[in-house]
Amino acid sequence: MSYMAFGQQRTFEKPLEQQAILNIRGKVYEKDTRAPYKDVEVLLNGGGYVTTDADGIFHIKAKIGDELTIKHPEFTTLYYTINSDERIFIEVVGIKPSQKRSKTITETSRFNQSLDSARAYLKKDAEKSIQFIGDALNVDVNSSQVAEAHELLGQIYDYWKQYDLAISAYKVSLQNKEKTAVKLKLAKAYLRNGDFKTSLKTAENINEATLSLDEKTRWFEGIGDAYVKIEKFDLAITAYQKGLKFAQQQNIIPKITDLNSKIAEVYSQQGETAKAKKYFGNALNLAKKENPKRAVEAQVKVAEFNSRNADYDGEIELRKEAIKGIAAIEKDSIINNASAITAQKQNYKIGNAYLLNNDFNSAIPYLEKSREEAGKRGDLDVKLDATRKLSEVNARLGNTEKTMAYNEEYKSVVDALYAKKIQEISQAARFSRSIAEQQNRITSLESDRALSKSKYELTQERNKRQELIIYSLSGGLILLLIMGYLMFKYIKQQRLANNLLALKSLRSQMNPHFIFNALNSVNTFIATNDERTANKYLTDFSQLMRSVLENSEEDFIPLKKEIELLSLYTKLEHFRFQDKFDYAIEVDPAIVIDHFQIPPMLLQPYIENAVWHGLRYKTEKGFLKIHIQPKSKDEISISITDNGIGRERSKALKTEHQKKHKSKGMHNIKKRVAILNEMYKDKVDVSISDYQTSEDAGTKVVVTLKKD
To answer: Whereabouts are the TPR repeats (predicted)?
Structure first.
């Protein structure tokens, strides 16, 4: 394909955004015959769109530096950069009839190659895999191909635990083509994302008649999983039993094993130990017939069941068998530290079972083995737990020298684990940014495709009406209304997408900021207190950090969870500054806290400011009060008051560097509240004022929260 464009080159000194809008006139014609090309699409990168008339002529408004895309089914898409306002002449070489099929085959081949590459990188490199999905969608594709690409995109996000993005991808796939397998994947993605009721609703809306026997097995299993999450155990067992029936009909051994295990787990949760043992026994026997890895996984599950039921001898026996199986597996493959079946974890749990049986001497060798293996494999979490247990056991046995040695090693492991967690947080933030960039590219491609297709179809319809001279006036009005509606819908969707990305970005910034501050407090406390108290502090901090990370992906969480998190956080701060303040958390009994939702980590920065910038500098002991009370029928008021030195005196104590540096936590909170209020109609209101008129003015923060 070749083309030629003629025009005079001009130089502009102004920035592009300040340049004048030019009326560009151009013509598209065939090179050999010089015949004009009608209905050629001319798209402007800034959003303009026209088609050529019967003489091959088009008019479009553009600026110097803008790029035109010239498209037609009979020639390869061309690109032209605007250099001046001179007339543009574009010569093209049309595709012969025999070449048209080869063009379609070539684009289909490119699409399939890109999807194959995406599959190849699915479990290795998320960014590359998603990039290949974008390449697949960057050719002329039909609805079936768009559905196939987004189904694979959903699987990629599913594997990398980006469940909210997986849900969006599966939805786009279903919009382009209804497919039962994708509906099942969508239901599972909702389940993994914690939206159990939507998962159940999605699964129940699938027509059973459209399912194959294999799909019916997975369908009933998914329904059972959702019922377990909402604690409807009888319905869960019924669903699992139906799935088991279909799995047995087809002799799908892995699913038969899984469903026996899941039924056992439900019976265990209900306290029906005898029934649980029966199904766990079935799962264990079946797993041994499959492969060594499945056998080990089943042994570990049953061992956990024995542990919960204080059958420590049975637990120890199964875990010892599992360790032998793990050794066999590792001859051919590597077991990741995140797996539940690592040797270091099993040795640790054997040691712990001996401890619970009060057999300290038998516990020590297994804890030592766990510690050594965890060290070799870089599993700092298990090494930390094993070292702590060894310190405790030796202390109880009176081995002072060993106790002190393990305590020293415990400190070094804490430091190493802290450095590792900070690195993991940084890597997670980079991963999220990379995924967002790739997803933005795909979203942009789909938006451009939908808009171009819509404009093209509308233009064709308009031309048809003009040729037939039918309903010209009413047709033009309808066209404007439809285009206005499409643009409004597009802008609204883009604004929602931007808000969701902004919230995710702010949460990813807030979590490392909070964790870094809290870990600094932990390090300081460890350096200045005795080891037993430090261990207790670390345990509470670990619980707090886990809760924060679990809640950080949600726009809103139940108020009850936020109160629990605040109670734990305030307890830790008070633990460190006991001589500086006391505190109280009061919840008015008239409030039904289950009826209210609140953005996670909304209140914590205000409490942190009260302690670190108000109460910490107070001469005498201060007081922090968190009071939750009803404001109206559908509103509650959450006040955080302290009688610290106040905002003005706190500013005066800051260094010049601190004055220049604004609180990132406060800034993020303001932006989050603004975005959430835009999305959820002013649900949250925050006001900050002085608490009293004395020298220590203190601070009062009042958060008003509306019911859903």
So the answer is: 217-250
